[in-house]
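During the no-cost extension, the postdoctoral fellow (Dr. R.K.) reprocessed legacy sequence entries with the updated structure-token encoder. One reprocessed record is reproduced below for audit purposes.
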Amino acid sequence: MSVFENLETLKSEALLQINAASDLSTLNDKRVEYLGKKGPITDVMKQMKDLSNEDKPKLGAAVNIVKSAIEDAIEAKKVELEAAEIGAKLAKETIDVTLPATKRTKGSRHILTQTREEIEDIFIGMGYSVENGYEIESDNYNFERMNLPKNHPARDMQDTFYITPETLFRTHTSPVQARVMEKHDFTKGALKMIAPGKVYRRDTDDATHSHQFMQIEGLVIDKGIAMSDLKGTLDHLIKKMFGAEREIRLRPSFFPFTEPSVEVDISCFACGGEGCRVCKHTGWIEILGGGMVHPKVLEMSGIDPETYTGFAFGIGVERVAMLRFGINDIRGFYQNDVRFTNQFK
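Re-encoded structure tokens follow.
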């Protein structure tokens, strides 16, 4: 059999095996087998040295034809096998669109945000404005304008985080009150405001204390404001937040920025005032502090204490939420545990 006949036989055999390949791996093996450096076509080319000068070009042309036929067959088979492979993969991974989709969990506002907004709504209904301020404050506005001069012992109760000796994280939202007081025009009416926001103190984190917490302070200044106005305002707030049957009582206390100052208690919602574990068998639960604005605080904001008087108070948002919902650890508000937060959707 001549070399040309061998070449035709090789072509026919290669095309049959290429068409019979069932996967891409087998097809690649056939490509290497027939077109590789050690394949039969290479062996045919080695026989060219034994041919006449007339037949050598003919063999070269015949080899190129066979190689092209094999390469075209391999490429066509590759396209066929790839399409089959993709089809099988799609069939295997078919999604049943008639199945119900995965349920998405619906988020909600944090319980502290809900509590803060509820308190804000109560005061907005009484004609108060909601004022915001800076969380990083000057020592002047945070302490001195609140009648807490440097080295005053009452500062120890509000030790905070200092950035510089004169710049700090605010310990209460009272600086907002000072900034609003110095700008308020009393010819346009009384000053009635609340100042909600985060405050910071160097407290040890435990079940009832946190280095960061939320506070809402209130301030009213006008002619003829008395302690009875403070009591009536707080009585309305407590009844809205804890129920119409709740009562409040005022106990004498001390705050540098109010005089006189009071601690405010509410009748225990667990026992109705009879005494239980929640109220430590006193019938009362401490809830906030307040008092009449100190004359020096008014003077430092350019307000004549002989003409104007006012009351101020401060309430912790966490404290209210803990009492309303029976939460016994303040740290739960800040740990981002969905098992905790999901209870208050």
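DSSP finds eleven helices and ten strands in the chain. Residues 221 and 310 are 4 Å apart (CA to CA). The remaining legacy entries will be reprocessed before the final report is submitted.
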